[in-house]
Amino acid sequence: MHKCKCVVVGDGSVGKTCMLISYTKNQFPAEYVPTVFDNYCVQIDIDDEDIPDVREMQLDLWDTAGQEDYNKLRPLSYEEADVFVICFSTVERSSFDNVKDRWFPEVSSKLPEKNGMICALIVGTKIDLREGNGPDKTKTKVKDPVKIEEGEALAKELGVTYMECSALTQTGLKEVFTKIVDIYLKPKKAPSEEKASPRAGSFSNLAGALKLKDDVKISCQCTLM
Hints:
- The protein is 24% helix and 27% strand.
- It is an alpha/beta fold.
- The radius of gyration is 17 Å and the shape is globular.
- Its main location: membrane.
């Protein structure tokens, strides 16, 4: 069975854990518990004619702490990572700025490449709050939210893909993890072979990139520290 180790990084409280729990357990966590190290294991069945030799794979999702207290401990999880996911909150601009200023430099020496493609993904979280559709159902205007165009521009600058999601509503959530598997399994096509596609941050352009069987997903969680 193919195994993919995916490490998720980003500032504290940007929604990394909520994103992972919402995807692996299909539920939004009731309360916030700061992470040190958690590991979520997902078994996925694949039905894609482009990769007929791969029928199932194990996706190991490593949830890390973003607080500075864990700066020396956190990099221990980076060894032998296949894909990195760098998260920021679309309603907290400082976390967006830190993608370029802190997180990309921190993982840069460990970033794997495949056929010239950096195996990393930038994910903007909490888009329900940016759109005023949070759990309290109010339409409170967020001050200086990060727009999708800004995320796309940063991802282009760093040479990676940008996507957005909401752990609460699960908008764009499945597409994020489909793309993680896609990055790991599928080699990048040459520019001349690539067809024009919708914007990198849209939810429609990657949903069909890889065909997964949703009904056979098995998840478990292991708290490492």
